[in-house]
Structure formats: structure tokens, C-alpha cells
């Protein structure tokens, strides 16, 4: 008799906007690090933001959400911090600091530098780790803070507020979550690809789209603008636990990357 199929899937999520700023945003190391980072590219610093102490620490932002996402001290085997905009404590590994707030003292690391596709990459890593047999519960922390302490080389959309989302991924009977990522520079073609993938899921399947996927199909949930990294995941937090298959899609126009998550 074949063994029961068990997969990893997102079972719950907690999202919240974070007010204020972190003390680390006024630390002189932030200026030193940022200046070293941008000097080879000739980009100027945002002296106004550095002087006023704008920005938030990702470990501080997410620590309180972990308590809400894992009530009763449920242990995790893996913790992944995913972010797109830089942290204000670049010298301190926020993922390791967060692991100390997470029951089970999970293996922890961070994923970045992939735009909005970073969140999907983190979920792919969690699913791959589960397949090794060493992960029954994974926590994926998504965070974005609204301050960029240098002038970007090209226009970028900055978050309207500091915001964090914690996704709890657990082993369950049946098929696990499926993440697909592909090069797709054209926004209209990306939306057509999402529609086709959604159609294949069958009638009744849900669809959640990031704000930059314009022209969303009827009945789809669209993330609010202003949160380019966490927007669609905040929307997912409002929908879980769900009933039936669900497709989550995001398209990073700057990097030309289409990413989708299918939850059975």
C-alpha cells in the first residue's frame, strides 16, 4: 500500500503595519554601511533620512507577530526572513535574532535581492526543505520598511508604511503548495499567464493578485497599492484559512519576473 502523500502548505498568516522607527535608524553604522555600499556607483545618500532616523529594524518589526502566528509555543523547524528594501541594521543578521523569538530554535537564514519574487523563493526553499524530511513546520517572515537611505539609480516604488507578514507553513495530508517562477518582462503577458494558470485550477478556485497586475480578472482579490513587497501577502492573511484551491500571483516589472503560489 503506497505511503500517504504529505506536503507543506501555508495554513495561516498574520500581517500588521508597524508605526514609529527603530533606534538603529540613528546608529552611525547605518550611514557608514550605506555610504560604502553606494560609493562605487556614485549614488548620493539621503542625509535627511539619516539625520531624522527614518526606518525600522526587521527583527523588531516581526518579533511580536511571531507570538501571534505561533500561539501556545508551537515549535518551528525552519525560519526564513525575506525582504526587498534594506534593513536598518545591516550588520546584525535579523533572521538569527528572530529565531530566538521563535519556539523550537529553528534553522534560520535570509533571502533578498530578488524584488517581489523573494517571497516566492522563500516558500520554494521551505517546500524543498520539507522534502528532505527535516521540516514539519516552517515560518516565512516577509518585511518591508519605507525608508531608503540613498538615492536609487532608477525610480523604485517604496512602501507607504513599515509592514510585516508572517506565513506559517505546515505539513498536511495531500498535495503541498506549488511555487512557479519564470522570466516574463511583459505585464500583459504575465496577466494572461496568470489567468491561464487560474483556469486550470477549475471552478471555484480563488485568485489573489499583487497591485501591479493591472486588469485583474473578475472575482480576483487585488492587493492595495503602496506595499510592493507585502501587499498580496497581507491579502492572503485575510483569506486564511481558505476553502479550496487558491492562486497567489505577483509580477516584478523591474526584474521581469512572474511568480505564482498555488495552495491546494
From TrEMBL:
InterPro entries linked: Thiolase-like
GO MF annotations in UniProt: acyltransferase activity, transferring groups other than amino-acyl groups
Protein's UniProt name: 2-hydroxy-acid oxidase
Organism: Kitasatospora cineracea
